[in-house]
Design goal:
Elements lengths: L4 E2 L5 H10 L6 E5 L1 H9 L4 E7 H4 L2 H11 L4 E5 L1 H7 L8 E6 L5 H5 L7 E5 L5 H13 L4 E5 L8 H7 L2 H4 L2 E5 L1 H10 L3 E5 L16 E5 L8 H5 L3 E3 L12 H21 L1
Parallel strand pairs: 1-4, 3-4, 6-7, 6-10, 7-8, 9-10, 9-11
Antiparallel strand pairs: 2-5, 3-5
Helix pairs in contact: 1-5, 2-4, 7-8, 7-12
Amino acid sequence: MSETVVKSRDNPVVKRARAVRERRTEGLIFVEGVRLCEEALGASLHIEEVLCTERLAGEERGAALLDALGSGAGRITLLSEQVFASVSDTRTPQGIICIARRPRTGPEVLAGALGPTPLIVLMHRINNPSNAGAILRAAEAAGATGAVTTAGSADLFSPKALRGAMGSSFRLPLWPGAAFSEVLAWCAERRIKTVSADIRAQHSHTEIDWTTPCALVVGAEAGGLERSEVAATHEALKIPMRPPVDSLNVAVAAGIILYEAARQRSETAKQ
């Protein structure tokens, strides 16, 4: 780690980090915060560069993280608090950023992890990165196989989505930017039942058989899935709600459904 503290916002290292944060650099992701950087390290991401503050380096947890990163990461650069704040994507920076290579993604990655009874989450036009990240977190926690996003959805590797997923983006097999019809066809080829979440559905999420290969399909925050999109899936479900509530945040809804799937699968495994 360099002992010189960078105090200029025009430093090449600072400018490169800002470009990665703004997603102007192909193949690299902007990982910020102690916990998220620990997750990136634990997931064996290739970390090219680390930016930190003297304050972080002086803290026990921060120093331990820097020692661990120093053994395999590229350059570690100290920034002044003011310069770090100019790079940070958060209001209260913790003092560490890792610039890492984007994990491999795509249909091949997902196909390689399916196993005998896959459970996939398809996010169709989910444009809020925090929601997308939270869905990934719930998916991994509930034992899902992987996740897919359609074209026009939030970037799963944007800083906000990464914070929402808190490490799940590094571990779950992902297929971003797919076409909706392409994913449905891909599932059909593999005999994976597609189940759409729709408030107009007749059946509850507890009435669906989740013990077979399944893909949960959730739609955009504002309007959900279109009728034609629901019709293109094998089954549809709704989450019962007491009036006057008639909708839930998409990440909350996905979590409820995924945990019902996990419950059913756990019960089947015990038999």
